[in-house]
Q: What sequence folds into this?
């Protein structure tokens, strides 16, 4: 039970999120299905808080002495992510947000996606749904990668020596 709590907490950490939590869970030998569910819940739990409050807190703190540089960095990241999504997506912003969150590379998780949606003034329900679908996709990809599926597939096509 403690290991599931650890994985749950890891999945809530910005940047690491479930992209780090799922490999940890698999490495601990935890049940993959239960771990997947725990990581998704942990990754999604901060989303409403980020959507409604992060932008306000970041704007408030951007000119503060000790936190200003970091808060400004976060604002710029959110604005940049939002503009990039909007430019590429046009009317398909929902799909773009889902794919942005769903492709498991650093800096494209639920935290950044939600912050970008907030900066774009997207509808809350649509944003949460897009982020949730993205998190589900990223979780499947990370689960398969952590269990060695991609390594097994690439071994089938590797040149024989």
A:
């Amino acid at each position: 039970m403690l290991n599931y709590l650890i994985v749950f907490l890891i999945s809530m950490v910005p940047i690491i999120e479930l992209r780090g939590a799922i490999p940890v869970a698999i490495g601990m030998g935890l049940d993959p299905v239960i771990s997947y569910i725990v990581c998704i819940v942990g990754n999604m739990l901060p989303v409403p808080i980020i959507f409604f409050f992060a932008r306000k807190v970041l704007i408030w703190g951007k000119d503060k002495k000790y936190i200003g540089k970091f808060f400004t960095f976060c604002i710029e990241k959110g604005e940049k992510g939002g503009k990039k999504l909007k430019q590429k997506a046009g009317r398909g912003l929902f799909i773009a947000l889902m794919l942005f969150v769903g492709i498991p590379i650093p800096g494209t998780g639920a935290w950044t996606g939600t912050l970008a949606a907030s900066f774009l003034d997207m509808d809350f329900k649509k944003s949460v749904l897009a982020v949730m679908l993205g998190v589900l996709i990223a979780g499947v990809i990370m689960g398969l990668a952590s269990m060695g599926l991609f390594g097994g597939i690439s071994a089938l096509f590797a040149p024989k020596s």
